[in-house]
Structure formats: structure tokens, C-alpha cells
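Example 348.
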Amino acid sequence: MVIVMTASATDDDLAEVVRHVEGAGGSAFVSRGVTRTIVGVIGTEEVLEVVDVGLLPGVGEVVRITAPYKLVSSENNAGRSTVSVGGVPIGPDTFTLIAGPCAVESAEQTLAAAQQARRAGATLLRGGAYKPRTSPYAFQGLGVEGLRILAEVSRETGLPAVTEIVDPADVDVVAEYADMFQIGTRNMQNFPLLQAVGGAGKPVMLKRGLTATYEEWLMAAEYIAQRGNLDIVLCERGIRGFEPSIRNMLDVSAVPMLHSLSHLPVIVDPSHAAGRRDLVLPLARAAMAAGADGVMVDVHPEPERALCDGAQALSGDLLDELTVAVATVPPLLGRRSAVTADRMGTTR
Ligand code: PEP
Ligand code: MN
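Predicted structure in complex with phosphoenolpyruvate:
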């Protein structure tokens, strides 16, 4: 059950609702969104029967939710949510391009990549300081020094920054330097990490686990929401398939499916799906056509020298072509694009 408070509900109204729920033997989880506050109620059927808050002051609506994920379910919110990342919207009215290096390698490389990203029409910067690599011998990221570089480049270019967190102990330092937490594929079900970012007061991008079902993915999102944070963006990045020539299999169906199951925005990372740059543009176009709220791509000023995932990094002509796609395809579906048609072809 979800209790939706009215816009004019006071803190006392909210406290009274929570007291009422707990008095009936249920648990109440409060999430304060930009426009409304909701209270998720968890309890047995018997408990839910006796929770009767409909007449309490400040209560707008009481919704029974049948999906196992409550707060992120579309049953809880028939509309679609917009998540603001440092003032940049990700949601149903816009198409957001997020771009940047896979890993922060140096100040020069990160600045050059961010400038490429901005010229290409990106409004958010990505860059990893903590890299969860398959091999312990591969470049692991610059850690806090990488965060500092990312924050400085973000300030210089005006692009709010998204960066991956791999350890709950790093929540404060990542929150200090970045505008959005990224939970990577390998950590989608790292529940203490999800709870830690859920309580940190910044938006979260939740990437799909390598073999996660939609329900598992949304239950992971629920862990974040349950800590009071509904500013969650789901990111499809390909799932484990059997074809070795592509890194992962992009599940385009995830975009309309997740939009129907949940009110959260859904974006796509074609770079980590493909693992090779020649596929990034066609997959990005497919994501746009399927109704994604944005895409996140790897760019690098010198892909052949990249310390991480150079084979999938865009630059030059391929990046220009992506800009053209971002300017043309989403507007066909009624979205405002981060790139306007008059900027096409002028990205370098
Ligand atoms: C990344 O985006 O840097 C990354 C490591 O992606 P994923 O978690 O999807 O593999
Ligand atoms: Mn990568």
C-alpha cells in the first residue's frame, strides 16, 4: 500500500500517518519527492486491512499495490517521473545524452573527453573513478583523485557528473564530488550499497545486473526507494548472451517493459552493451526509437590509448553521427532533445 500525501500536507500530518501505520502493526517508509511525499506501507494482509488513514489530514490518496516492488511501481504513480541531476532533467519530455570517458585517467584526458561530450550535445558527464574490473590486474581507477578531477572538469564545463560507487564507505566522498551515483551492473544486488546510496540524498543511476530479470532489477530499485530516495534512473546496458562477438546483448524490450512496470526513467548504455564502437550508434538509435529517456555513451579523445574500454569509445565522425541521431530521432517521438537540429554537423 502507498499513501500519497497532498502537496499542502504538513510534517505533523505526515508524522500522524506514520504513527497510525505503526500503531496498526505495519512499517512505514517515507519518500519525499520534488512534488509530493509518499509513504510506503509494508505489512501482512491483516495489517493492511486495519490501516485506515483515508480520513487523516494531509492524505491525498491511498493506493493498494499488487507488484512486489511498491514505491517504484507504476501502480504507485500512473505518470512518469522526471529525475533532476544537478538541474538536468531525465524523464518523459526530454532526451538526455550522458557522455564521458569510461574511466577518469588524468585531468587532461577527462577535460578533453568532457569537451568532446559537450560539443556532441551531452548535458551530463560520466567518468569512473572506482572501476570494478573483471581482472584485478586491470586499471582500477584513480579513486578520490579521480573524483577530484571529475568535479573540477564538471565545474569547468558546466556538465553535472555521474560516477560509479562500489563501496558503501565511499558514499560521503562520492556525494561531495558528484551529482549522481552510478550503481554498476556487478553491484545491482549489493543491498548494503543500494541502501547506502538510498540514504545519501542524491540521484542514483541503477544499471541492470548481467542476468537480472525486470523484477529483480525493480526490487533492487526498491531498496534505494525504501530509504527515501525516489530519484532513480534505470539503465539497460545489455545482458549476458551466448554470442562472443558482442560483449552483451542489448535488451531493447527493457525500455517499454520498464516504462510499463515502473514510473522511473529508463536510459540505455549502448557502449557497455556493444563493447565495440561500430555498434554503438545503431544501438543508440534503437534505444531512441524504443522510447528511452536518454543514452549514456563512452567517449575518449584518444580511444586507442584508453586505459579502460577503448574499443567502445566514440570520437570524431562516429560521435558527430550520434549527435545527428540525438537531434533528429527523439523529437519524432515528441521529446525535447539535448541537441537542436541547428547544431547538427557543428560539433567539432
Ligand atoms: C560503466 O558504466 O563504467 C560500467 C562499468 O558499466 P557496467 O556496470 O554496465 O558494466
Ligand atoms: Mn567501461
